[in-house]
Amino acid sequence: MTTVSQSLVVDLTTKRVFYCGMDFMSKETRSRVMSRIRGRDTKPEMIVRRYLHSRGLRYSLHVRKLPGRPDLVFRSRKIAIFVHGCFWHGHEGCQSWKMPQSRTDYWQDKIMGNHKRDTKTIRQLRKDGWLVRVIWACQLSDRRLERLYQTIVGTDKA
Ligand SMILES: [Zn+2]
What is the pTM for the complete model shown? Predict the structure, then answer.
């Protein structure tokens, strides 16, 4: 295994995605998020979770019973949210990642495989009556998070 180049790719991409996302945030959100992070998980998923939690929303995490184990689930509202890293899930047209130049076939297969599985998962959930939202790491802005919040509270079926 060429672990050196592999982990290098992954690490670099994760960092870039993360910083890219943070750059789009206003100072207030960034400091709010950062003040809560300190030594904790800084993955995009955690940013979404903390944001929605700070707005008073409660949710289930990684629900195994649902296709694709959505990252956040609002059961009573029947909303499933995926927070996707742009590299692993093959965000199309995204500026935050590039196909690795070494072992390109391997990565292409892997990423395309993830992408296909995501598409199938989302289709299945929608067929079952779920509202599905995918948040890409590169899109983590105040506006995107606010829009997500509004979508969730706007579809309260309770
Ligand atoms: Zn992206």
Answer: 0.72
Whether CATH 1.10.3720.10 fits 3-154: no
Residue 74 CA to ligand 1 center (angstroms) comes to: 24
Distance 75 CA to ligand 1 centre (A): 27
CA–centroid distance, residue 157 to ligand 1 (Å): 31
CA of 21 to the centre of ligand 1 (A): 9
pLDDT tens figures, 89-114 = 999 999 888 888 888 999 999 999 99
Q: Which residues surround ligand 1, an ion (CB under 5 A)?
A: 86, 91, 94, 96, 136, 138
User: Which of these, 23, 76, 78, 72, lies nearest to 50 by C-alpha position?
Assistant: 72
- 38-46 contacts at long range (C-beta below 8 A, 24 or more positions apart): 42/18, 43/14, 43/18, 43/83, 43/85, 44/17, 44/18, 44/83, 44/85, 44/135, 44/137, 44/140, 45/71, 45/83
